[in-house]
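Team,

Forwarding the record for the chain on the shared tracking sheet. I've put the sequence and predicted structure together so nobody has to dig through attachments.
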Amino acid sequence: MAAIRPRSNAGNAGKVSTVSAWQPPVPGIAEVFHARFTEHAYPAHVHDTWALMIVDGGRVDFALDRERHGAGVSDAVVLLPPGVVHDGRTVAEAGLRKRVLYLDTSVLPQRLAGAAVDAPLLVDPALRERVHALHLALGERDPLEAQSRLAFVRERLRGRLAGRGEPPTGGTAPGARLAVRLRELLDARVVEGITLEEAAARLGHAHPTHLIRSFRKAYGLPPHAYLTGRRVALARGLLLAGARPAQAAAESGFYDQAHLARHFARHVGTSPARFARSGGA
């Protein structure tokens, strides 16, 4: 894929001032996302990727695995692991300026997720400077420099996370095992979806309300909200790959473009069309 230079755009969804998002030709980086929000609140959701964030202005408050944290402009780097529920919101009158890298598990293995849950705020000036330099290289469309700088970021992150512990397993109680099985089923049916009745039948005729309670207890959000977040993540990738909003809606499991737009604004802070244009060449 050719390198793409980000281009800011104005928008009103979520009171957003600017958003730039693009997919760089750098293995391991699924998406680059720069944003300035005057006011926005993300619903609880999960990512398939790691989210590595630095704050350039304002302050963000977020919950990770139901523990609240806060980060402002400092030497701290925020690292959110894949598969763990989190939310986020602006908390300062000036809003929030942030830069995020979505990294796949070739950069950081899944087994380090537990360490990131324990310590999502990494106060490390050297790491923050490396992440900043990586963003600059990505903006200059220099894949070789970006790959080199990513290697140094990965080295620092792995060093910080090593030895902090294994990822949470969700427990071994019957309810926890049921939640894991339902999540696997949802992951396999992101686009086509599944009814609660069918899920209950596939999971040993579990009672639907027991399914919902077990899932919420294990992951902090109900199954339908989890599935919506997975669909939004899929739509993001399709839009950045060149799909039009209507096509992205159909191919990510939404009823229509309007259905995608409503959820996309809540999760991303802008409309699908503006998000797609933000990474124009």
